[in-house]
Design goal:
Blueprint: H1 3-21, H2 25-36, H3 42-47, E1 61-70, E2 73-82, H4 87-100, H5 105-109, H6 114-125, H7 131-141
Antiparallel strand pairs: 1-2
Helix pairs in contact: 1-2, 1-4, 2-7, 6-7
């Protein structure tokens, strides 16, 4: 899948998910691009998981290696990730997770400001201390703010 093909599919999935959740679709697309290496990651190809969402509840899962930053050190581990039937299902679940989990209360509180939302989301979503900056760079470079209207 090319970047252009990924962006087209992700824009459609994010717009649909956002119409239900009210979360900024442009940030969703940027986050999916960052997390899935533009839809090229093994997790996105095998499990339609574009956000690195861990398996939860009775959700179908796939076990894969991953890397986390713990106390400033990159650590490789194995994790159970959620498996989805489609990109749209994954995007809806990502939004639902943000809307229900207490860890994302700060992000929900600033949903009207996409940059603040991305920074608050980055504090909780990933262990990479530069996550929000990377997310916002993709968001700006690809002019994804137009999706938030």
């Amino acid at each position: 899948m090319s970047r252009e093909e990924f962006l087209e599919a992700a824009r459609a999935a994010a717009t649909l998910a956002s119409s239900e959740s009210g979360l900024p679709a442009g940030i969703t697309v940027a986050q999916a691009a960052l997390e899935s290496a533009w839809g090229r990651s093994e997790l996105s190809r095998r499990a339609h998981n574009y956000f690195g969402i861990k398996a939860h509840g009775k959700h179908a899962a796939v076990v894969m290696p991953t890397a986390e930053v713990l106390r400033g050190t990159l650590v490789k581990t194995i994790a159970r990730f959620a498996r989805y039937a489609s990109m749209a299902e994954c995007f809806r679940d990502r939004d639902a997770l943000i809307l229900r989990a207490g860890a994302y209360a700060e992000a929900r509180a600033c949903v009207a400001d996409a940059e603040m939302f991305a920074r608050a989301l980055g504090e909780r979503w990933a262990t990479d201390p530069h996550y929000a900056d990377k997310l916002l760079a993709i968001y700006r470079q690809h002019q994804l703010e137009a999706l938030n209207t």
